[in-house]
Amino acid sequence: MSDTQKSATLAIDGQSFELPIYSPTAGPDVLDIRKLYAQAGVFTYDPGFTSTASCDSTITFIDGDKGVLLHRGYPIDQLAGKSHYLEVCFLLLYGYLPTAAELEDFENTITRHTMVHEQMNNFFRGFRRDAHPMAIIVGVVGAMSAFYHDSTDINDPLQREIASHRLIAKMPTIAAMAYKYTVGQPFVYPRNDLDYASNFLRMCFAVPCEEYEVNPILSRAMDRIFTLHADHEQNASTSTVRLASSSGANPFACIAAGIACLWGPAHGGANQACLEMLKEIGSVDRIPEYIARAKDKNDPFRLMGFGHRVYKNTDPRATVLKQSADEVLELLGVENNPLLAVAKELEQVALNDPYFVEKKLFPNVDFYSGIILEAMGFPTSMFTPIFALSRTVGWISQWKEQFSDPAHKIGRPRQLYLGETLRNYADIEDR
Ligand code: SDX
C-alpha cells in the first residue's frame, strides 16, 4: 500500500478526525476509515458497497467509465486476442506472463490434475437427474474437501498451491460430469493430449458410440469465453470467497461459496436469464412490449444481459465476445436462428433507446456469452457452470492474495440498527 500522502478531515459534533488518504496506482483515492469507530464512535453506511474498497489488490483493475479491464496491467482485449486461458491463469496466479518453459510446466501440471477421485462418481449419483447443474457443482466442489484432505490446510503454502491447481484443473471435469449426469449420458474422462477448452468440449459432447472431433473455431471461442470471465475485481462472488476465506475455511468450501453467489440472476446467472428472456420475447415484434416493461418502475422486469454495476459505457469483454459470437454463428450457420435474430434486434433497440443510453444500459458480457453457448449447443442451465469454471482462477487468485497480507483478519461488517430497543418478555397471558 502506498504511504499516506494526504488526509481528509471529518467534523462531527464540533470534533475533527483526520482520515488518511491512500493513492492507488490506478483508480480513485481511498479514505482509510479503519480507526473511525474507535475514534469517532460512528460507522460508515454503504449497503451494496458502491463506495467501499474491501481490500487492496494487484490482480485486476476496472475503469468503468472508460471500459477498461486490466489483468496484472495487461488489457483484456490483448489477452483475449493473443493469449489463452491457461496462460491467463498463470498471469492471475503469479503476477507475470510465463516463459515458454514455465507455461509448459504449468500446463502439464493442470493437465495431470484434471481427473477427479473415482469415488466422486458415486457422489454424483445421489442427485436427481433433473437437478440444475449449478446445484450439483456447488455440492461437488464443497465436497472436494472430503476427497482431497491433503490440500485443505490453508496455513501450508504448498497445500494452498496444490488446492489451487486441483480446482482449476478439475472444474471443467466436474462441470462436464454435471451436464452428462443431467442428460443421462455416461461421464467422459479428460484426455491429456487435448488443450483445456478442447478437453471440456469433448467431455461435454463426446459419446462412447463414436469419435468426437473438436472444431478448432469452437474450442478457440470456448477458450476466449473462459479468458473473458476469469477475474473481475471484487464482484459479489469474489467478495464472497474472500469473506469465507477470512474465517479460515478450506479452499474448496470457499470456492463453493463463490459458486453459490455467482448463481444469482443479477450476477453469473444473467447469461441463463438472458437466453430465457430472449425465448420469452420469442419474436422481434414483441421487443417493444419488453422494452416498455424494462422502463416501467412498477414492473420488476429487467433486460437480463444489460447494464453493469461498474461499467457505465461499455463492457470491454462484451466487445471482444461480440466478435466471437459472429464467428461462431457464421460457422454453425445459425445466424438465422430466430432467438439470435431477437438478440441482435434487442441489442440495436437498447443501444439506441434514450432510456437505456441515459442509464448506461448496454449489452454486458453475459449477453454475448449466452448467445455463443446457445449456438454451441449447451442448454441454458450450463451457462452459469461455464462462468463458474472460468471464474475459479479469479476466485483462487484473490483467495491466495488475501493470505499475502499478514494483517488480514476475519471480515465482520457492522449495521445501521433500526429495530426495537430493549423491551422485556411478556408472558402469553399478558399479550
Ligand atoms: C455480472 O460485478 C461484476 O463485476 C459482475 C460481473 C463479473 O464479471 O463478475 O461483471 C458479472 O454480474 C454482469 C452483470 C449481469 N447481470 C445482468 O445482466 C442482470 C441485469 N442487470 C441488472 O440487474 C443491473 O444492471 C446490475 C445488477 C448488473 C447492475 O445494477 P446496478 O448498477 O446496481 O444498477 P441499479 O440496479 O442501481 O440500476 C440503475 C438504474 C435503475 O433505474 P433507476 O432506479 O435509477 O430509475 O438502471 C436500471 C434500474 O432500474 N437498470 C435496468 C437494468 N439494470 C439497471 N433497467 C432495465 N434493465 C436492466 N438490465
TrEMBL record:
Name of the protein in question: Citrate synthase
Source organism per UniProt: Shimia gijangensis
Record SUPFAM superfamilies: Citrate synthase (SSF48256)
Top-level taxon in the UniProt lineage: Bacteria
Similarity comment: Belongs to the citrate synthase family.
CDD domains noted in UniProt: EcCS_like (cd06114)
Enzymatic reactions: oxaloacetate + acetyl-CoA + H2O = citrate + CoA + H(+)
Keywords from the UniProt entry: Transferase, Tricarboxylic acid cycle
Annotated active site: H308, D366
GO molecular function, a single term: citrate synthase activity
Gene Ontology CC: cytoplasm
UniProt record, GO biological process: tricarboxylic acid cycle
Listed pathway(s): Carbohydrate metabolism; tricarboxylic acid cycle; isocitrate from oxaloacetate: step 1/2
